[in-house]
Automatic annotation (TrEMBL):
This is LysR family glycine cleavage system transcriptional activator. The keyword Transcription regulation applies. PROSITE patterns: HTH_LYSR. Belongs to the LysR transcriptional regulatory family. The keyword DNA-binding applies.
Amino acid sequence: MSLPPLAALRVFEAVARQMSFTHAADELGMTQAGVSYQIRILEERLGGSLFLRRPRGIELTELGRRLAGPTTDAFDLLRDTYAEPEGASALFTITTFQTFAALWLSERLGRFQSAHPELEVRLDVSDVLADFAREDFDVAIRHGAGKWPGVTVMHLFDVEFTPMISARLADRYNLREPADLLQLPLLDNEDENWINWMQAAGLSCPKMPNNLRLRLGAQLHEARSAMAGHGVALLTPRFFKAELASGLLVQPFPILARSGLAYWLAYPHGRRNRPAIRKFRAFLLDELSADAG
């Protein structure tokens, strides 16, 4: 079967990405009637509807969903090929969540930009999962199982955690075994990873203390609270090497537990050959290698 008309595919990609005939028409410099005409041509060629018209907008049909991802990937590759010749100055945008940006990535991005002065690097920090089809980001660093539709992923490192406390609190309590931690206030003690760590430490059915009702929501804040002596935080050692080396934080036990999740670099399939993304992948691999050394 020969390809449908390129003009119709171009319109379909814009409508599917914007989920709006009006916005697609504005982007392409067409009238809404022209957009509707091209969609109708494509639907007739394919023998099925691509969109459902709803009172509050449009939705992709099953056929539309099946075709939208590969079509967007193909046009992403074309856009990148023609918009960013090798060596040209370009904007490179990264989105990630607060903890990873503050505790690992931001201190390293200066080295990446210095090594690639042709790139203008921008970091977006948000705990909302990025949607590449609707948001203008080149790459995302995500936390999870690594299974997201429509994207290529590269494993960075597994999620590991262990209790940490301030030196002052460590001096006050004589912590000889993991069970001794149950005497102390545990920050965010409803986090299921506390149970995971206790079990890894050999405590099969620990009774978690309920003496501190404090929910801070992110390792960045939990670490600050722990350094202030307010309790025990469950933290990722990779993120707090400087604090551990300086004594601001103490890791009472060498036991590490894992959640089964990891940190991943993610980007749309169609952008996998983009020069800036290849450079960022290589940079991350170098940083991770140095980090492990």
